[in-house]
Design a protein that fits this description.
The chain has helices at residues 6-15, 24-28, 31-40, 60-67, 110-121, 124-129, 131-146, 153-158, 160-170, 177-189, 195-218, 224-233, 240-271, 273-284, 288-302, 334-337, 372-389, and strands at 43-47, 53-57, 72-73, 150-152, 311-313, 317-319, 322-324, 329-332, 394-395, 417-419. It has 422 residues and is α+β, with helices and mostly antiparallel strands. The strands form three sheets. A five-stranded mixed beta sheet has the order 1-2-8-5-3. The protein has a three-stranded antiparallel beta sheet with strand order 4-10-9. The chain has a two-stranded antiparallel ribbon with strand order 6-7. A hairpin with a 2-residue loop joins strand 6 and strand 7 (322-324). The N and C termini lie far apart (56 Å). Bound molecules: protoporphyrin IX containing FE (HEM). Pfam families: p450.
Length: 422
């Protein structure tokens, strides 16, 4: 591939009007703008709505390489800072709540140690045990609105399902789960809005998790937090702070992502009746392998994580021929990479039978999604149950009236109003 010099890059970008990024129209359908960047400015420096400047990486090959590049750190201390010298942190509210020491903010060797510890607790056995619980959750949530003939799929289905699942995984007692649901809801309702609301809910979650860790230490159960404490008692070190941050990152990473997987997938089916029929036929004949490949394709086509979490250059380096300075933030645009025509045939087409579908929806490298098996289980169970029980499910509003959340990292709908024959 030809190596672009910066001068050529600048000329190329300045000669053509750059699409407006992060506007309202962009949030509705970012794919054309990403396509333009991939072609004309594949490693593109932009000012984000927050005022911070960052590089956007949009080609599949560059994205995959950047995700696994050890010179790109996850630790916000490596950010050179914005014009006012403020470093960018990862998750809103985490710094003031003292929850910074988690997997998405750290590098090896700390990352290696913590990831090994949590992998021991987050076993395939634990995920497999979850299948009946996720099924029961999906059914009981549908039961609650099935008589009405209408629902908001985000608030009544996609939102509660993962929060209860994560509560069970962590070992949050059933009687506390509705409080947890409210705080987590506040955390995302305010996402992109006033920071105060997020910070307050993150602090509540932090206080609750500290108390829970304390209780589990005295009275362990068969849950992830107890396993983390047990593992740390066997010589591997996990501080109380690290345990709380671990529980928090699992909540943060596993919650809104799963909401979006369910919401974006249902939305994709409403827009593509042919593929929807392919899916419903597979559900009817119990074709598990097609259902699995469908969930992977839905992740590639319109996945929950639009942009991977922040990375910072620890030294001067090049991505796709573009020089990046030490301290610069690098954002890998998974949504753009996963529609790269150099990697995927007819990338803008949803094809549930697609083979050779090595998408980057779960990331790549050492930060590859820890919860991918659980996410697959939740996504498959939710979609299968929904379209089996409500076969004539349809949008009850004009698609043009749907609103997407405005955040930088995640891509998902605010609401998804539907109707069906009760
Ligand atoms: C990391 C996607 C569900 C836990 C990641 C990353 C992506 C991702 C792209 C890497 C971020 C980066 O490198 O910047 C997704 C998607 C999901 C999903 C698309 C749903 C469909 C879950 C669930 C859990 C989870 C259900 C846990 C219950 C994590 C954790 C990390 C992570 C802990 C950090 C891993 C590390 O840094 O070592 N996920 N995720 N995710 N995910 Fe997921």
């Amino acid at each position: 591939a030809p190596v672009r010099t910066s001068a050529r890059y600048r000329r190329q970008v300045n000669d053509t009007p750059t699409p407006e990024l992060f506007s309202w129209e962009f949030a509705t359908d970012p794919y054309p703008a990403y396509g333009w960047l991939r072609e004309h400015a594949p490693v593109h420096r932009t000012e984000l709505p927050s005022g911070v400047e960052a590089w956007l990486v949009t080609r599949y090959a560059d994205a995959r390489q950047a995700l696994a590049d050890a010179r790109l750190s996850k630790n916000p201390e490596h950010h050179a800072g914005d014009a006012q010298g403020r470093a960018k942190t990862g998750i809103p509210g985490e710094r003031s709540a003292g929850l910074m020491t988690h997997l998405l903010n750290i590098d090896p060797p700390d990352h290696t140690r913590l990831r090994r510890l949590v992998s021991k607790a987050f076993t395939p056995r634990r995920t497999a045990l979850f299948a009946p619980r996720v099924q029961e959750l999906a059914d009981s949530l549908i039961d609650a609105f099935a008589e009405k003939g209408e629902a908001d799929l985000i608030h009544e289905f996609a939102f509660p399902l993962p929060i209860y699942a994560i509560c069970d995984l962590l070992g949050v007692p059933r009687e506390d789960q509705d409080d947890f649901r409210d705080w987590a809801g506040m955390m995302i309702r305010h996402g992109g809005g006033p920071r105060g609301g997020v910070a307050r809910s993150v602090k509540k979650i932090r206080a609750y998790l500290s108390e829970l860790i304390h209780k589990k230490r005295a009275d362990p159960g068969d849950d992830l937090i107890s396993d983390l404490i047990r593992a740390s008692d066997h010589g591997e070190h996990l501080t109380e702070n690290e345990a709380a941050a671990m529980a928090f990152v699992i909540l943060f990473a596993g919650f809104e992502t799963t909401i979006n997987l369910i919401g974006n997938s249902a939305h994709a089916f409403f827009r593509d009746p042919v593929q929807r029929t392919v899916f419903q036929d597979a559900v009817e004949r119990g074709d598990g392998s097609l259902i699995d490949s469908a969930v992977e394709e839905l992740l590639r086509f319109d996945g929950p994580v639009e942009i991977a979490t922040w990375r910072y250059a620890t030294e001067g380096l090049e991505i796709g021929g573009q020089p990046i300075r030490k301290g610069d933030p690098v954002l890998v645009v998974l949504a753009a990479a996963d529609r790269d025509p150099e990697r995927f045939r007819s990338p803008d087409t949803l094809d549930l039978t697609r083979r050779d579908n090595q998408h980057l929806g779960y990331g790549h490298g050492i930060h590859y999604c820890l919860g991918a098996p659980l996410a697959r289980l939740e996504g498959r169970t939710a979609l299968e149950t929904l379209f089996r029980r409500l076969p004539d499910l349809r949008l009850s509003v004009d698609p043009a009236d749907l609103r997407w959340r405005g955040g930088l990292i995640m891509r998902g709908l605010r609401t998804l109003p539907v109707e069906f024959t009760p």
